[in-house]
Amino acid sequence: MALYVEGLNKGAANGGMAQFQEMMRQQLESSMNAELEKLLDSTKGSDREVSRKDFEGFRNLFQRFLQVKGPSIEWIKIQRPPEESIQPYERILGRGLPDSVADCLNKLVVVKLNGGLGTSMGCKGPKSLISVRNENTFLDLTVQQIEHLNKTYNTNVPLVLMNSFNTDEDTKKILQKYTHHRVKIHTFNQSRYPRINKESLLPVSTSLSMTGQSAEGWYPPGHGDIYASFYNSGLMDQLIAQGKEYIFVSNIDNLGATVDLHILHHLVSQPNGKRCEFIMEVTDKTRADVKGGTLIQYEGKLRLLEIAQVPKAHVDEFKSVSKFKIFNTNNLWISLPAIKRLQEQKAMDLEIIVNPKTLDGGQNVVQLETAVGAAIKCFDNALGINVPRSRFLPVKTTSDLLLVMSNLYSLDAGSLTMSPRREFPTTPHVKLGSSFTKVQEYVSRFESIPDMLELDHLTVSGDVTLGKNVSLKGTVIIIANHGDRIDIPAGSMLENKIVSGNLRIMDH
């Protein structure tokens, strides 16, 4: 990137800025094409064909990246979305359900984004295979939810997993255990794109191999890749041929993202001329969500605005809960024929996210990515629905894991719902320290999950363990200083307490 910018500056100094810029861009494109061809020549057979399709998508992204001049959003043009473009969930609920729920469900495919690893929680392999409740993994709960729908309504809603090269092999091994469940499971793979050197803007990898040092040269390009990779896989055409019309897409670690029959009914009951092709579920922002993408009206279209697109001078304004009141949950309902149309017309225009990374050897690279929700501007009659917070229950950390494992939630047919015994509809704020970051460490520090029904806030820091049947109420702060250890005894009840220093109960 530095070389590109340096070249542009020289061009500007010589007075022929636009001409020089175009020459540099063409030179970079040509160099990139030559490098991609070399990579393709290093393999044969079906791998080469898959990589060729991936590289088509990457070339397109790279060309657009070189052409981008300045921010993709002019702040002055941003408007609040018209009221009718973001509907309250209550209005959707008020329409009731049709006589034949089965007819709606048979038009639906559930797609889970399953490309991520569990490394941030100290786990190897796909994140979807981490146990989250009663020994059930994220994938187990997803299968149970859809199987329950299929049995209840005598339908055939399939589950599709978008894997990445990081998760595909391990996921496919585990899928054998669901053979006798009433859910047809399909998979397809996200694209594999080359990381590019921050200086030269050329691929860092010299072969398509995924072993040794070469593996670091590749990445899955964000969930916005779903449109191209789903289309390229051939699976989309199969599902359309079976009469499927809509996909419900969500992150596999969002335990609140279950099939909502009312939203589905709203989609399929629209008159043909005004058929809604895209619904984004949004929910009210809290202070914890200030960085989340929001919906805006821009040049006459509903559009997703991400913090990465916001000019520095306006970041505080973007984070303001009073101006931008809602954020994207990444629960999306999208028309399959519309995706097919936009792919064939090459009209899927997604903003590029430039993600800088440093490899293990210290090399600075760039990943070009896209986000699935950014496509909302490309679809006809797109709509936001302001859903209850309960539909956004992501598990990104062990603090989130503690919430979903606790008695705050009850589990029924794979779905978690807030316990009716909880007096407040909001979840407590939980902050576990670095000693709890990895799932294995976290599990070893709780003899059993505490009673948290009346908890408002929990902070735990340092070398702390909790015994069996501990009850936490109100605000509880437990801090063991460096070198100290705190053991909360079995059966303890802590209500509005700060525990610090050194507390160790030993058997004798």
TrEMBL record:
UniProt catalytic activity: alpha-D-glucose 1-phosphate + UTP + H(+) = UDP-alpha-D-glucose + diphosphate
Binding-site residues for substrate, renumbered to this chain: H223
Pfam families on file: UDPGP
Pathway: Glycan biosynthesis; glycogen biosynthesis
Known EC number: 2.7.7.9
Leading EC class: transferase
Record-level GO BP terms: UDP-alpha-D-glucose metabolic process
Keyword annotations of the record: Nucleotidyltransferase, Transferase
Molecular function terms, GO-annotated: UTP:glucose-1-phosphate uridylyltransferase activity
Positions contributing to UTP binding: K127, Q190, G222, D253, K396
InterPro entries, alphabetized: Nucleotide-diphossugar_trans (IPR029044), UDPGP_fam (IPR002618), UDPGP_trans (IPR016267)
Function: UTP--glucose-1-phosphate uridylyltransferase catalyzing the conversion of glucose-1-phosphate into UDP-glucose, a crucial precursor for the production of glycogen.
Subunit structure: Homooctamer.
Protein family per UniProt: Belongs to the UDPGP type 1 family.
Name of the protein in its database record: UTP--glucose-1-phosphate uridylyltransferase
Lineage: Eukaryota, Metazoa, Chordata, Craniata, Vertebrata
